[in-house]
Amino acid sequence: MLQRTEAIQTLADHRGDALSVACMQSIVPWHEAQQASQGHIDATGCMGSASSIGLGLALGRPNRHVWVLDGDGSLLMQLGSLVTVAGLAPTNLYHFVFANGLYQSTGNQPLPGRGVFDACGLALSAGYRRAARYDDAATLRDDLPAILAAEGPSLIELTIEPEDGPPRWARVPMAAQVQTLREELSVSA
Q1: Contacts of 111 (CB under 8 A, 6+ apart)
Q2: Which of 17, 136, 154, 165 has its C-alpha lying 20 to 30 A from 187's C-alpha?
Q3: pLDDT tens for each residue of 135-150
Q4: Strands 19-23 and 40-43: what pairing?
Q5: Burial (Cβ within 10 Å: 0-12, 13-18, ≥19) of residue 123
Q6: Distance in angstroms (rounded) separating the CA atoms of residues 102 and 170
Q7: Distance (Å) of CA 47 to CA 18, 79, 95
Q8: Domain 4-188 falls in which CATH fold?
Q9: Domains of the chain by residue range
Q10: pTM of the full predicted structure?
């Protein structure tokens, strides 16, 4: 299994100018990897909405890759978003799901259906173009260029180790990030 920080660093090394949306327990590591200062929004206070926010960005900026850094618990909160994303089929959307089998942000409760549901299978059944699961950094690192060269929407499940300790929060106001991103995108339009 991957450590969240090594998966985050692998993604950061390949990000380029992709827009990003992070939720829940991926927020702090994405900030620590220096990836949240431009072209980024933290989906805070709206568990399960990262893919919907990413979808809006992907449709609004079809010339830019959009990365959603989601959690398996967060995805389960709004599972129908897979069908919405697939139905609109943005070729520039890459949905990274950090899967540890827990609602980590609320105290590490086990997910319903833990070990039974298949996020990749759900995404493909919903109509995503491709889905893949990774549990080691070397393979992810090797495959990431090809994943990002292929048309999305793609779901990339990253099997990560559960983390000890309380949830970590970046405490960055989402409204301020939305305004900053709006200004960035209006300049580049």
Answers
A1: 72, 73, 76, 101, 102, 103, 117
A2: 154
A3: 999 999 999 999 999 9
A4: parallel
A5: buried
A6: 20
A7: 22, 11, 15
A8: Rossmann fold (3.40.50)
A9: 4-188
A10: 0.91
